[in-house]
Amino acid sequence: MRAPVIIPADTAIRVRTLDRIDANSAQPGARFRGSLADSLKSSSGAVVIPRKASVQLIVANLKESNRISGREKIDLKVNAVMFNGKSYPVATTTARSQGSGKGSRTLRKTGLSAGTGALIGGITGGGPGAAVGALVGTRGGTAMAAATGGEHLKIPPETVLTVRLHSALRIE
Asked: Domain 5-102+152-171 falls in which CATH fold?
């Protein structure tokens, strides 16, 4: 019988996602498929678990943005590594994927609409018309940004994430 091999705590594990993960439909605790992007090796350098071994990813935390501002975030952990018919539970750090945020997009749309409103108001009503036009344009730009929303954060298949082991992994 072969002696167990220990992969020490704080070892970095690179994982490749197999499923598409969408912030719009994912929930904390949701599970997704992945595979090892690199082999896991012993301290002597011997391959213990080969590249492409299956892993189970779990959504540890999810932050949704609202329609005006904020960034969507998905925190994923590796929950288990499967190899040779066995499932090895693991505790890892999280890998965070973060959206681009909507605040700057909202500001751009609001500013553009305010400028357009001020220009039209200035042409049609002079100075007071410019002020009213800017106010109306600002409100319209904010409403447009809220109505159009934006794309939700998606992690496509084949995305490589890196996590670290919280505790040693014992392979038998």
From this structure: Lipocalin (2.40.128)
pLDDT at residue 104, rounded to an integer: 39
Query: Which residues, 6+ apart, have CB-to-CB distance to 157 below 8 Å?
Result: 17, 18, 19, 20
**Residue 25: which residues within 8 A CB-CB, separation 6 or more?**
none
Q: Is 53 helix (H, G, I), strand (E, B) or coil?
A: coil
Write out pLDDT tens, residues 94-153.
998 887 654 434 334 434 454 554 445 556 566 555 554 444 444 544 444 444 455 678
Domains of the chain, by residue range, sit at: 5-102+152-171, 104-148
Cβ 77 vs Cβ 55: under 8 Å: no
Paired tokens of 97: 């994927």
- pTM value > 0.85: no
